[in-house]
Write a structure and sequence with these properties.
- It comes from Actinomycetospora endophytica.
- Pfam families: Glyoxalase (PF00903).
- With 120 residues, the protein is of the alpha+beta class.
- It folds into two domains: 1-49, 2-Layer Sandwich (Signal recognition particle alu RNA binding heterodimer, srp9/1); 65-120, 2,3-Dihydroxybiphenyl 1,2-Dioxygenase, domain 1 (Roll).
- The protein has two helices and seven strands, in the order αββββαβββ.
- A hairpin with a 2-residue loop joins strand 5 and strand 6 (100-106).
- The chain is globular and about 45 Å long.
- The N and C termini lie far apart (30 Å).
Amino acid sequence: MSVSDLSVSEPFYTKLFGTGPAMTLSDGPFQRRVFALSDGQLFGLTQHEAVRSGDRFDPSRVGLDHVGFGCSDPDAVAAWRDHLDAAGIEHSGIVEADYGLALSVKDPDGNALEFFMLAG
């Protein structure tokens, strides 16, 4: 995930995931922090040297719409809601739709994240 300022995004994601980065990389024209998530997935944040000033995420542009994290059941979605509340991170609340349950969050750059459980 490209971010504009790691000094702002890293603390947000540390709060979100409840753990700090497992790796720091700086072997290119960028700085990167990689989080090792509890399910074995890796999630990376990258601040490129050539950041466009004032640029913000927009899901209507070609590219990323949002990042979704699957939850196994309604209790797992509720656990994320409770964690976000405890961490002081604003969110959408749990939304019920015909496809399942969704809980949405935006990071400091406006990047959209969703914790969801598919119906059925």
